[in-house]
Specification:
Elements lengths: L2 H37 L4 H35 L12 H20 L9 E4 L2 E3 L3 H7 L6 E6 L25 H9 L2 E6 L6 H18 L6 E7 L1 H13 L10 E7 L7 H13 L6 H7 L4 H5 L32 E8 L7 H6 L6 H4 L15 E5 L10 H11 L8
Parallel strand pairs: 3-4, 3-5, 5-6, 6-7, 7-8
Antiparallel strand pairs: 1-2, 1-4
Helix pairs in contact: 1-2, 1-9, 6-7, 8-9
């Protein structure tokens, strides 16, 4: 753990203690209000004394806990090198940091936290520079066919390895990136990014990253494939929208955009949480829970209706109920492919419609809404039954479809 990361963890712990104490105080205040309200005006002096004492106690705990956590973080930071290994170098810690970025990523960026994950190309668990020399060193066998993979909410580049571990010390199963390299000669570039930021902001960063990547690639790029899981598909569509008509070199190289379980029309879980928080605000005792739920990041809120442009969210209330998202056309001369999953074998049966893949409905993943429809073709819209949302990250049936789509373009020489 680097020193800046230790300091950031201390600050985060202090904020967490402060938030927990504030929620406890709100619950205490709501319950006390019910009790004293039932006793009538005669209880006013007792209530005033109670509120003063309780307020002092909560303030003391909040300040003491916050200061203690910050001091602890600073003490640990003093023992850590500035250029030492990152906490994200450990697989389990990386999992936690990825989830943290998904939930609080916009706040981490706002405070300049060392725990905020910037968008980076990754290889073998390490960041890769995008300079010409860096890319040549990282990809000595680079081909003219490049595939870029983006993960989804609360995930990281390591999420593509989900389900690859084998028992008895056997080597792990290959990932999509490895299979596409070995089977079709595509050179994989796996990205990691902060999923708690606005999707449109990540789309802007992806647009710029792809421009630099193509300009400095070790050989001439003749084909660019973009694959996104869940939120990653929305980030890709946002970047494509930005690049449309911009003259970006990478735009003209895109042949396929593949989206796996992407909530093009919104995610039901975020919609449900948004509705629940509004209802809970009407009950004083539920206000602390509503406050905790409202902490969720801008990236999560963007998933409510699949907001991929600034116009989709700018000027709207954070907890709006009406879908403000406009129609964003697909890129011309690009094959857009989408895979949806449902826990049930059939997406149009009762369980398929009720559960979807646990996080995304078939209609949203295929852009088949009542108000908005995305023009995916029937041959490029595939449903896989009996799978969950995260199974799409690594599954033989999904890879078989990926290979069929991407093998349609003959490989070009490196």
């Amino acid at each position: 753990m680097r020193s800046d990361e230790a300091d950031a963890l201390g600050a985060l712990a202090a904020d967490g203690i402060g938030g927990a104490v504030a929620r406890a105080q709100e619950l205490h205040r709501a319950i006390a209000g019910r009790v004293f309200g039932g006793l009538g005006p005669s209880a006013a002096p007792v209530r005033a004394a109670h509120d003063a004492i309780a307020g002092a106690v909560y303030s003391g705990v909040r300040v003491g806990g916050g200061v203690g956590s910050r001091l602890a973080g600073q003490a640990v930071a003093a023992t850590r090198p500035d250029d030492g290994p990152s906490v994200t170098d450990h697989p389990r810690a990386l999992l936690a940091v990825g989830a943290l970025n998904g939930i609080l990523g916009d706040r981490l960026v706002a405070r300049g936290s060392a725990l905020a994950l910037p968008m980076r190309a990754r290889l073998a668990g390490q960041d890769i520079g995008l300079g010409a020399v860096d890319l040549a060193d990282a990809y000595p066998d680079a081909t003219g066919r490049v595939v870029v993979l983006l993960h989804g909410l609360c995930e990281t580049d390591a999420s593509w390895s989900l389900g690859t571990a084998q028992p008895d010390g056997l080597p792990p199963l290959p990932t999509y990136a490895e299979r596409l390299r070995d089977d079709l000669g595509l050179t994989p570039v796996v990205l990691r990014y902060n999923t708690g930021r606005r999707i449109s902001d990540n789309g802007r960063d992806l647009d710029e990253l792809l421009d630099t990547l193509i300009a400095n690639w070790p050989c001439e790029v003749r084909e660019l494939v973009l694959i996104g899981h869940s939120m990653g598909g929305l980030v890709i569509r946002s970047a494509c929208h930005r690049a449309h008509g911009s003259g970006r070199a990478w735009r003209g190289l895109v042949t396929h955009v593949v989206m796996l379980g992407t909530p093009h029309l919104g995610a039901p879980l975020e919609q449900t949480v948004n509705q629940a928080t509004r209802l809970m605000r009407r009950v004083p005792e539920a206000l602390p829970v509503a406050a905790v739920l409202n902490v969720r990041s801008a990236g999560i809120r963007d998933l409510r209706f699949g907001a991929i442009t600034e116009e989709d969210w700018n000027g709207h209330e954070p907890d709006h109920f009406d879908d403000p998202c406009g129609d964003v056309p697909l890129l011309e001369d690009v094959r857009h492919c989408t895979i949806s999953a449902t826990l049930a074998q059939r997406h149009d049966g009762p369980l398929g419609r009720l559960l979807g893949d646990l996080l995304v409905y078939h209609s949203s993943a295929t852009g088949a809404g009542r108000r908005r429809r995305i023009a995916f073709t029937m041959e490029d819209t595939v449903h896989v039954g009996g799978l969950s949302h995260f199974a799409l990250l690594n599954h033989p049936r999904v890879y078989a479809q990926l290979r069929d789509w991407l093998a349609a373009v003959p490989p070009v020489p490196a």
